[in-house]
């Protein structure tokens, strides 16, 4: 059959972050990949931002003292837990048993997501359209228009099918 | 439940064209949306290019005489049939009965696809990553880099989730 792509045990990576949109992406994934097939594996991927480039001995070290760096790392760990717990509350209510793996990466989101999808030989990547790139300023907006979003990048660079989900209010 | 998006009867639009990649997109769609649920509806969407802007009374009318325009329309109709038959051969071999609707649009592919998805209130759009935009020249390549592909545009502009599928050889 032309274009045969069937596979009974799929590995589906969902890139989750602090946004409600990424939880919608997870929910979409559960409804469409896990409602009738318990052999699929859900991989929850969270990417922490890269560590600051300044060290405590940098000329601007007073801005990133050991205490501040530690506080930032602490905040990052708390964020991981918060997002993973939120994701868990989404799939816990799902009636089917789901095989779940959690992966936490660190670095530029687009590179880490593409790298993990490649490394795990994932069958599908599911993510929100605006994930890992909240618009906070005109500069952010300019960057997104010029460089595209993380989902744009991933859709272009990963080999597997990519599902881009939008939060209803952001449609 | 946060991000609840479940729906038992989904309308899935697959944008098909002459490429093998779009048949892969169709196959992916069948495997993931129709293997366990026969209540979903598959909408096969083909978009014919817009008619030439020159009429038979144009200064360059000799280039687009009535005969040539008729021949182009004839070619367009044959292409529709060819693509739809190819798509049929993909879903005919699928073991489940599938509700299929065929839609043929005419115009700029990106606008027609977004318009049809909106009008039908589709639940998901599935398409190939390079559909409706084969690179034939350096100019085409430049345009794609600058303006993005049809799938980029659709992923940004339609409200529903968008699945972008790649042909294995083009990964």
What do you see in this structure?
The structure is a homodimer of 171-residue chains. By secondary structure, chain A is of the alpha/beta class. Chain A has a single domain (11-170), classed as 3-Layer(aba) Sandwich (Rossmann fold). In chain A, 42% of the residues lie in helices and 18% in strands. Chain A has a five-stranded parallel beta sheet with strand order 3-2-1-4-5, with helices on both faces. The first copy, chain A, is globular, with a radius of gyration of 18 Å. Chain A starts with 10 loop residues before the first strand and ends in a 6-residue tail after the last strand. The model of chain A has no long low-confidence stretch (mean pLDDT 80). Chains A and B meet through helix 1, helix 2, helix 5 and strand 5 of A and helix 1, helix 2, helix 5 and strand 5 of B. Strand 5 of chain A pairs antiparallel with strand 5 (162-165) of chain B, so a sheet runs across the interface.
Provide a compact summary of the structure.
Chains A, B: It comes from Dipteronia dyeriana. Chain A has 171 residues and is of the alpha/beta class. Chain A has five helices and five strands.
Give a quick set of tags describing it.
homodimer; alpha/beta; 171 residues; 42% helix; five-stranded parallel beta sheet; 5 strands; Rossmann fold
Distance between the termini of chain A: 36 Å
Largest inter-chain contact set? A-B, 41 and 41 residues
Inertia-based shape of chain A: globular
Strand content of chain A: 15-25%
**CATH C-level of chain A:** Alpha Beta
Q: Any idea what the CATH architecture of chain A is?
A: 3-Layer(aba) Sandwich
Low-confidence stretches of chain A: none
**How many H/I helical runs of chain A?**
5
User: Number of folding domains of chain A?
Assistant: 1
The radius of gyration of chain A is 18 Å
The description of the largest β-sheet of chain A is: 5 strands, parallel
Oligomer: homodimer
CATH superfamily of chain A: HUPs
Q: How many DSSP-defined strands of chain A?
A: 5
Helix percentage of chain A:
40-55%
**What would you call the structural class of chain A?**
alpha/beta
Strands of the largest sheet of chain A, in order across it? Answer: 3-2-1-4-5
The CATH topology of chain A is given as Rossmann fold
Mean pLDDT of chain A: 80
The secondary-structure element order of chain A is: EHEHEHEHHE
